[in-house]
Design goal:
Helix content of chain A: 40-55%
CATH class of the largest domain in chain B: Alpha Beta
Structural class of chain A: mainly alpha
Largest sheet of chain B: 3 strands, antiparallel
Number of strands of chain A: 5
Order of helices and strands of chain A: HEEEEHEHHHHHHH
Strand content of chain A: 5-15%
Structural class of chain B: mainly alpha
Distance between the termini of chain A: 55 Å
Number of strands of chain B: 5
Largest interface: A-B, 41 and 41 residues
Oligomer: heterodimer
Order of helices and strands of chain B: HHEEEEHEHHHHHHHH
């Protein structure tokens, strides 16, 4: 379950997925941009993922429809991730690849995909870690462009902590002191 | 919490340094305090010249700055000990060799404030640097092991933990999120049940809320009730720590 107010989660769920509707649905034609009342069976178009989930999991009446596997979860990308996860450009595929993957897998049952994603994430983690420790002096832009948002946040966190240790080593922090108010108080008493 | 982001990740190096100053260290005082020293942390026996006194590091440094003591280099910080540790560190690929919990901070403070008390300070500094690099690359290897239920790193120092903490904790949560199947596998139910649960996640949510309260009164339902709250608690705990 994602945090309701998490803006990244909201953005991740905004990813479009292709849906095919199996039956006529009255009152939903506006989804496609049409002016008729009923959505015709067999229509197939992109809707945001959060909307698709609401339609499928609707409490009162479930809408009969298929969510097609998005292209970036397709066999081509899967095979590329299996072969060498480090070289795949995830931003190009889907900027929120892993985050969207988790919400997608909560709705759609795809054991193979979850395995592929976990393995890929772990493999890429190693590379991200190495880059955070190298202090940003190696050529990282190429590599950074290939990361998805989750990994980028990780990279940033790692960079910050190793930078602060580095600064501490260089004595550029100064030292912890009492607050000036405390010193004044001490003098007064 | 309304903390700046760099403070949310844990302790800052300066705070860790502050903690390390409470470690005890041996000094040879040049003054005689005559009375015992009453400190917040307890009473220290009076300092006597020409004798080894054990005091907190902060006091040692403060006295050193006033030229009122000589600091004894800790046994692990001598050139011989460090050379030995470094060799051990390089021969063993997996385990960290033993170092004090606050070794980086203590070493840095001593090198900074008590250079003249350390025989061959430059060699010590180089050795410490080599040691740190060897250990750092080992910590990096920890990424491989990540993704199990826990990660074991014996003998790692506080400063070293703190360096990898933000990265590892975040990565750990992400991996947990990526394997939803792990949430149901704790209690020994078969795979078919798992598939069913994730196939119709909407349905199982309904069942969870409806069945949870009934199971409290019904002894027969205890099997399902023991599996369900566990997974929901797991979600809560991940969320809670993400909010921190």
């Amino acid at each position: 379950m994602e945090d309701y107010y998490d803006i990244d989660a909201i953005l991740a769920e905004d990813q479009n997925v292709k849906c095919a509707f199996q039956s006529n649905i009255p009152g939903l034609a506006w989804l496609e941009g049409g002016h008729d009342d009923a959505l015709k069976a067999g229509s197939r178009f992109d809707i945001p993922f959060w909307l698709a989930r609401e339609l499928v999991e609707h409490d009162e009446e479930t809408v009969g429809m298929d969510i097609e596997t998005p292209e970036f979860f397709g066999p081509k990308v899967r095979n590329a991730l299996r072969a060498d996860a480090n070289t795949v450009d995830l931003t190009k595929q889907c900027p929120n690849f892993f985050r969207f993957g988790t919400v997608y897998l909560q709705l759609v049952d795809d054991m193979a995909l979850s395995g592929v994603m976990e393995e890929a994430f772990k493999a890429r983690l190693q590379m991200t870690m190495d880059h955070t420790q190298s202090g940003g002096n190696s050529n990282t832009t190429d590599y950074l462009n290939r990361l998805d948002e989750t990994e980028r946040a990780l990279y940033k966190a790692g960079m910050e902590s190793s930078a602060s240790i580095h600064q501490w080593n260089q004595h550029s922090f100064g030292r912890i002191r009492s607050a000036s108010e405390m010193l004044l108080k001490r003098k007064a008493t | 919490m309304a903390l700046p982001r760099h403070l949310k990740n844990g302790l800052t190096p300066l705070e860790i340094e502050f903690l390390a100053e409470n470690e005890l260290i041996e000094i040879e005082a040049a003054i005689d305090t005559r009375t015992d020293l009453e400190l917040l942390s307890g009473t220290l026996p009076a300092l006597k010249p020409l004798r080894t006194n054990t005091v907190p590091l902060w006091m040692a440094i403060s006295l050193k700055k006033k030229h009122k003591c000589n600091i004894r280099v800790p046994a692990w910080m001598t050139v011989e000990a460090l050379t030995k540790t470094l060799k051990e560190e390089e021969t063993n690929d997996v385990r960290f060799s033993y170092m004090p919990y606050h070794y980086m901070e203590i070493a840095q403070l001593l090198l900074e404030n008590a250079m003249d008390d350390i025989p061959s300070a430059e060699a010590t500094r180089t050795l410490l640097k080599d040691l740190r690099e060897a250990r750092q690359s080992k910590a990096r290897q920890g990424v491989h092991a990540l993704g199990e239920s826990y990660l074991q790193m014996d003998n790692i120092g506080l400063m070293e933990i703190n360096e990898i903490r933000p990265f590892f904790t975040k990565a750990f949560f992400e991996i947990q999120k990526l394997r939803p199947a792990a949430a149901g596998n704790n209690s020994n139910n078969n795979n078919a049940y798992d598939y069913d649960q994730y196939g119709n996640s909407g349905l199982s949510m309904d069942g969870r809320y409806g069945g949870g309260s009934m199971a409290d009164f019904d002894g027969k339902a205890s099997y399902s009730s023991s599996t369900v709250p566990e997974s929901s608690r797991r979600f809560q705990s991940t969320q809670g720590s993400r909010m921190n």
